[in-house]
């Protein structure tokens, strides 16, 4: 692996294919790489959330939340490993249960959700919503890939699904330390806009 990482370009992908862990090559347009790309993009967005937390040092976001983001980034990297090496198990049922426990803990501190919310509020909250929407896309692509035998494990798909729920609740959870209110969808907003035109 060390030799592979030190050589950044190989020119072998110039024909539109890329190498797999077992030495085989696949087209870069393969559904497998759509999922890999979405997972990579999602991981990058979560990295931005972590940076945003560091910039908000004055806010009292629990240390456990910050640590959870680190764990999630590593688990997403593991899913990438699963996709490259089908025999590798990067996430399992324990990881899904952990996400569910995290969701329940955050949700216990929040008021009941009585309406749809808009993905806004602060940079941090909005960034969590961006990550959530990318996570949903990754899930859709993973479901497509799941139609191919042994291309992706069902546990990985379940983890991605639960992670999108985690990100939604996390966005709500962060409104309080960010000192912002949730912005609710208003069924009358467009009517007011239309009437004023």
Q: Output the structural class.
A: mainly alpha
Identify low-pLDDT runs: none
| Large-scale geometry | globular
The assembly state of the depicted protein chains is single chain
Radius of gyration equals: 19 Å
Q: Total strand count, please?
A: 2
Explained architecture:
The protein is mainly alpha-helical and 197 residues long. The chain has helices at residues 2-6, 31-55, 63-84, 93-107, 123-146, 154-173, 189-195; strands at 17-19, 25-27. The chain has a two-stranded antiparallel sheet with strand order 1-2. It is globular, with a radius of gyration of 19 Å. 25% of the residues are buried. The model has no long low-confidence stretch (mean pLDDT 85).
Set down the secondary structure blueprint.
Elements: H1 2-6, E1 17-19, E2 25-27, H2 31-55, H3 63-84, H4 93-107, H5 123-146, H6 154-173, H7 189-195
Antiparallel strand pairs: 1-2
Helix pairs in contact: 2-3, 2-5, 4-6, 5-6
């Amino acid at each position: 692996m060390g030799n592979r990482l030190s050589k950044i370009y190989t020119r072998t992908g110039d024909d539109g294919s890329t190498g797999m862990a077992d030495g085989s090559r696949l087209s870069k347009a393969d559904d497998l790489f759509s999922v890999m790309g979405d997972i990579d993009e999602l991981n990058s967005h979560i990295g931005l959330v972590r940076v945003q937390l560091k910039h908000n040092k004055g806010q009292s976001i629990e240390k456990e939340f910050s640590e959870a983001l680190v764990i999630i980034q590593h688990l997403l990297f593991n899913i990438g490993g699963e996709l490259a090496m089908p025999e590798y198990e990067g996430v399992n049922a324990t990881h899904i249960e952990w996400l569910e426990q995290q969701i329940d803990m955050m949700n216990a501190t929040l008021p009941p959700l009585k309406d749809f919310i808009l993905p806004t509020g602060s940079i941090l909250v909005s960034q969590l919503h961006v990550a959530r929407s990318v996570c949903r896309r990754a899930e859709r692509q993973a479901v497509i890939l799941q139609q191919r035998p042994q291309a992706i494990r069902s546990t990985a798909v379940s983890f991605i699904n639960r992670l999108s729920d985690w990100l939604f609740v996390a966005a709500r959870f962060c409104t309080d330390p960010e000192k912002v209110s949730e912005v609710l969808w208003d069924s009358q907003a467009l009517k007011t806009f239309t009437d004023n035109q």
